[in-house]
Amino acid sequence: xxxxxxPDGPVTLRNVTIPAAVLxxxxxxxxxxxxxxxxxxxxxxxxxxxMGGAMVLPAFVDCHTHLDKGHILPRAxxxxxxxxxxxxxxxxxxxxxxxxxxxxRADFSIRCAYAHGTRAIRTHVDSMNGQYARSxxxxxxxxxxxxxxxxxxxxxxxxCEGYALAEYHDIAxxxxxxxxxxxxxxxxxxxxxxxxxxxxxxxxxxxxALDFHTDETMDPSSETLRLIAxxxxxxxxxxxxxxxxxxxxxxxxxxxxLDTLDLVAKAKLDVVSLPMCNLYLQDRQAARTPRGRGVTxxxxxxxxxxxxxxxxxxxxxxxxxxxxxxxxxVMRMATRIAHLDHSDPDWVQSFAATPATVCGFADNSLxxxxxxxxxxxxxxxxxxLYARPQSDRIVLRNGVAIDRTLPSYTxxxxxxxxTP
Length: 420
Known about the structure:
Layout: E1 11-19, E2 29-37, E3 40-42, E4 47-50, E5 55-58, E6 60-65, H1 83-93, H2 99-116, E7 118-126, H3 131-145, E8 151-157, H4 168-177, E9 182-186, H5 192-206, E10 210-214, H6 224-235, E11 241-245, H7 254-267, E12 270-273, H8 275-281, H9 298-303, E13 308-310, H10 327-337, H11 353-359, E14 374-377, H12 382-387, E15 394-397, E16 400-401, H13 413-417
Parallel strand pairs: 1-4, 6-7, 7-8, 9-10, 10-11, 11-12, 12-13
Antiparallel strand pairs: 1-2, 2-3, 5-14, 14-15, 15-16
């Protein structure tokens, strides 16, 4: 599979394995061929190469990340691995988030994602306490610089209590100015319904989609997802609404959780599950083995027609100490954590086609005429794909193999050496 020696002109990759769902077909895996010409998927023709059953996937879409937090772990440790430990230490580290600091770390993460085969990213951006004025312009610049390689969206990250602050409307206006998504973290507060209704009204006036961090806790009494669905139904809000985490559903009584999902389906909310971060943070208590995985009810959601995506979430920060913006790692981990195996064979769509649709990114099908943005792995079946990290994968963008060299962590050292 040495694509450095690909002949010029059209080429046909013969004997490749492709998930049937990606081809718009029923079933599991399909052994077929795929043509490439002028950087696009084409009818078979030109030079033929036998790929020995190698699996071909469309480039990934990572719809819930935190590029502005990425890689701060060397200077912002989580003292106990808990959610509160993460929150307090990220807030303390905001003092270091100059424009150059955010730019350096975010660009590092984008380069990792690109090398691993991601073509589109939505990042949440910490925006309270004036941080929006520093981070949003930088990420907008990166969006422009990476155009044609990575499609980048930004979503504001504020707490639901932040709605009462004077800067809320300035943040919302900045989101609109930069063509972003209006985001919020929802958790149980007495005035939450009033906040949500006001938030939806603001989004409606500005023509913005919404993105929520929702019920990121194993406390079964946390039901802000249910309230979001009720508010969307009450107001008739019809722009896209993406909700992430939804961990408390897994700790609730089945009847209550499923009734909430019926409301979510009726309100046409989309869901993104973040299995790696949730496994890391949720149900963590000192000297006690965790009982819960933290993953939300993805099977029950999918059965109700709710669009379910999976994403990276945090990377090397106090909320998740690991990760590399590698959506193939997310696929492997999600399959194990949420038992996607021995289930519907089309879960692969939750890592590419579904998040593209949910976020409004360009379609990434393998239809003739689509960009030849592909990931090619030597694995010939799901077991081989998930048994190894696929470090030797080939990433094609517009039909050309990219340089997959990952940036060195040493590039980030100056940021931490300068920290007081």
